[in-house]
């Protein structure tokens, strides 16, 4: 029978007393009569030990394993507008969505003795190992049976630094542009006419140490050098020819995953977010699930095939998917109401409406005629991207009479609408617009819709010629991704009589009278061989002749000029009036992407090489235009050429124009241009 004050009154048990009682049983002090007396030294020692344990562990000696404290069942919510707090962006963070800087050392071959064999010893060692791995010197060609050391010493080759910014989430096989620069401090004077051998690209800034990880990508192909300079004058003028690019020359072979990290780890919430994402982006045939849970706080995200050309749009949509999928109609009503009351977050609300899917269309349609421009464009953009063909008249109205900054974007949105002859008819009319950026936007929209009005011809494996009908003739050349020359004006002809010379009379085009055929004369500065042929007076025929390489399979005559040489020749000839059309190059975006990627990587070593000393590369030119092209030095000119560097963002779905006027004559580069 239990006795004592605690038992009589029902008072709480004393854990220290319990511990003492239990410890007493350990030393036998409570066994039999007189158990309260300590009988020997061992009992004293055990009593002291138990008292010490009682002080250190109030719960008792045999209290068992401790229970881990449970995390509170609360959700950390970011400082997000209340209407968006059920979206993924308020409860989790996407990681790995910045462009990934990759780089490596490569070998350019096929130069006109403008290379150099004076690379530093550490880099030569890296190159020799890479060349052995890639089998350089074993193939049939000018370097057959030559050792790597002999090839590196050959003036027809140059060691280069290859760098690129891989799009975030890019899967295996994704192609991208790469930048190629002669190794700073070497004797290489020009990369004109060169071709990059297969180069392995590793994450981070280039280092002379041999990487210990697998490459993320490979790069190879013909170089695109400053097209506005005479290729024969390398080392004889002030034009910078040691930087170029390879359009679509890189290919991803080991992508880095994009992850979504929950702000408050929870298995249940991870499952809810994963289910919401996979419900919004169903698994396509041959693809895995878009979202896959790794643990209680991390999901792996795979970019769906439909969004691989624009992963940024996918990431914006994903972040605005609702975690709670119940009552989507009510959510659409709340988003539409917030568009009117909070126009400052119109872009986010547009993404949220798109993330809901077609069920949001009844609410977006009610805002297509809203008087305030930001809510109206947010709703129209959401509707267009959800495939609502009723956005057509509203987008046409913006394209014709909207604010100038929104008009090209409205035309591009028309290009993504479902098949409709009225859409194509309107876009064809815009090919006649007097505004250059609208004409190009209309062409891009029609090309996306595979409109039969666009006649496409592929010139060997070098580039594509697109011909589009237009009352405003011009010649447009792309400088990134797929190389294209677009001739606006069906049947655009060379003026006759005509005499135009390029590159100090090494290339001449002439016709004595309006009825005479066009004669083209060319002297190859590499071989000294001269050719003269007659060609039809259409601009497309002239472009094909300049680029085509005669082969037994395709014996038609041609000069076998590179894409950059063709672009440069066309720019010069059109500036001299060979045809009633201006030449318009695309703005350079690769340099801006590389600058942003380098800023992300700056301050951190490549993880695979430790503390090796880096070999710096020269800073990419930030003034827009063509890689390596000389431009006016004034800050006003630079800012005018690269409007996309401004921190402000356009309205949802409306991208900036990437068109600039033809650059002025090259100027002498700054003396202060030194390797970084």
Write structural notes for this entry.
About 30% of the residues lie in helices and about 15% in strands. The chain is of the alpha+beta class. β16 and β17 (about 520-525) form a beta hairpin. α8 packs antiparallel against α9 (about 345-355) and α9 (about 345-355) packs parallel to α11. The longest helix is centred in the first third of the chain and has 16 residues, at about 40-55. The N and C termini lie far apart (about 90 Å).
Would you tell me the structural class of the helices and strands? alpha+beta
> What is the average per-residue confidence, as pLDDT, rounded to a whole number?
79
Radius of gyration: 35 Å
**How far is the N terminus from the C terminus?**
89 Å
Strand order of the largest sheet: 2-3-4-7-6-5
Biggest sheet statistics = 6 strands, antiparallel, barrel
Strand content: 15-25%
How many H/I helices? 19
| Broad shape | flat
Helix content: 25-40%
Number of E-state strands: 19
Give the low-pLDDT segments: 1-13, 15-65, 603-676
Secondary-structure map with pairings?
Layout: H1 5-9, H2 15-26, H3 41-56, E1 92-95, E2 100-109, H4 121-134, H5 148-153, E3 158-166, E4 175-182, E5 195-203, E6 217-222, E7 243-252, E8 258-262, H6 267-280, E9 291-293, E10 298-301, H7 311-319, H8 328-341, H9 346-356, H10 361-365, H11 373-385, H12 392-401, H13 407-414, H14 421-430, H15 436-448, E11 455-459, E12 463-468, E13 474-477, E14 484-488, E15 498-502, E16 507-511, E17 518-523, E18 530-535, H16 539-547, H17 563-575, E19 583-585, H18 590-601, H19 635-641
Helix pairs in contact: 2-3, 8-9, 9-11, 12-13, 13-15, 14-15
């Amino acid at each position: 029978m239990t006795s004592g004050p605690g038992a009589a009154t029902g008072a709480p048990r004393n854990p220290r007393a319990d511990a003492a009682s239990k410890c007493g049983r350990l030393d036998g002090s409570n066994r039999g009569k007189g158990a309260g007396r300590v009988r020997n030294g061992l009992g004293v020692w055990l009593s002291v030990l138990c008292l010490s344990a009682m002080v250190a562990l109030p719960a008792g000696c045999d209290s068992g394993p401790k229970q881990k404290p449970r995390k509170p069942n609360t959700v950390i919510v970011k400082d997000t507008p209340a209407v968006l707090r059920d979206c993924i962006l308020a409860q989790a963070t996407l990681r790995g969505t910045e462009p990934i800087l990759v780089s490596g050392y490569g070998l350019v071959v096929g130069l006109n003795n403008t290379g150099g064999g004076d690379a530093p010893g550490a880099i030569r060692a890296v190159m020799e190992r890479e060349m052995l791995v890639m089998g350089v010197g074993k193939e049939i060609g000018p370097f057959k049976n030559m050792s790597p050391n002999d090839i590196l010493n050959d003036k027809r080759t140059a060691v280069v630094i290859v760098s690129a910014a891989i799009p975030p989430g890019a899967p295996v096989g994704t192609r991208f542009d790469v930048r190629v620069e002669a190794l700073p401090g070497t004797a290489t004077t020009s990369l004109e006419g060169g071709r990059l051998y297969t180069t392995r690209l590793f994450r981070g800034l280039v280092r002379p140490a041999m990487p210990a990880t697998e490459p993320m990508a490979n790069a190879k192909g013909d170089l695109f050098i400053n097209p506005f300079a005479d290729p024969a004058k390398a080392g004889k003028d002030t034009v910078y020819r040691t930087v170029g690019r390879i359009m679509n020359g890189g290919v991803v072979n080991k992508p880095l995953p994009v992850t979504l990290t929950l702000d408050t780890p929870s298995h249940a919430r991870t499952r809810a977010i994963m289910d919401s994402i996979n419900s919004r982006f169903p698994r396509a045939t041959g693809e895995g699930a878009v979202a896959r849970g790794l643990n209680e706080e991390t999901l792996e995200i795979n970019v769906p095939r439909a969004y691989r050309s624009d992963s940024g749009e996918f990431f914006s949509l994903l972040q605005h998917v609702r975690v709670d999928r119940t009552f989507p109609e009510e959510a659409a009503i709340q988003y539409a109401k917030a568009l009117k009351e909070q126009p400052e977050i119109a872009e986010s609300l547009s993404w949220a409406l798109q993330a809901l899917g077609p069920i949001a269309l009844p609410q977006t349609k009610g805002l297509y005629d809203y008087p305030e421009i930001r809510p109206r464009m947010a709703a129209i953009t959401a509707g267009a991207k959800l495939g609502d063909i009723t956005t057509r008249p509203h987008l046409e109205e913006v394209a014709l009479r909207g604010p100038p900054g929104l008009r090209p974007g409205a035309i591009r949105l028309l290009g993504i609408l479902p098949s409709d002859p009225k859409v194509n008819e309107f876009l064809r009319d815009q090919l006649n617009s007097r505004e250059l950026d609208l004409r190009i936007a209309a062409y891009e929209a029609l090309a996306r819709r595979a409109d039969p009005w666009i006649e496409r011809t592929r010139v060997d494996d070098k580039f594509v010629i697109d011909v589009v009908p237009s009352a405003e003739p011009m010649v447009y050349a792309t400088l990134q991704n797929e190389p294209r020359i677009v001739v606006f004006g069906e049947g655009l002809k060379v003026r006759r009589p005509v005499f135009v010379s390029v590159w100090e009379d090494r290339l001449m085009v002439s016709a004595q009278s309006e009825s005479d055929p066009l004669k083209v004369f060319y002297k190859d500065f590499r071989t000294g061989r001269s050719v003269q042929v007659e060609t039809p007076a259409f601009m497309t025929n002239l472009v094909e002749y300049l680029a085509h390489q005669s082969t037994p399979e395709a014996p038609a005559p041609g000069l076998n000029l590179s894409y950059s040489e063709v672009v440069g020749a066309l720019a010069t000839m059109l500036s001299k009036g060979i045809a009633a059309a201006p030449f318009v190059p695309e703005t350079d975006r690769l340099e801006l992407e590389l600058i942003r990627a380098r800023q992300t990587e700056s301050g951190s070593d490549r993880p695979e090489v430790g503390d090796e000393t880096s070999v710096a590369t020269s800073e990419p030119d930030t003034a827009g235009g063509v890689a390596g092209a000389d431009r006016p030095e004034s800050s006003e000119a630079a800012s005018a050429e690269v409007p996309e560097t401004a921190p402000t963002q356009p309205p949802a779905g409306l991208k900036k124009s990437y068109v600039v006027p033809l650059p002025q004559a090259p100027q002498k580069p700054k003396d202060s241009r030194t390797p970084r």
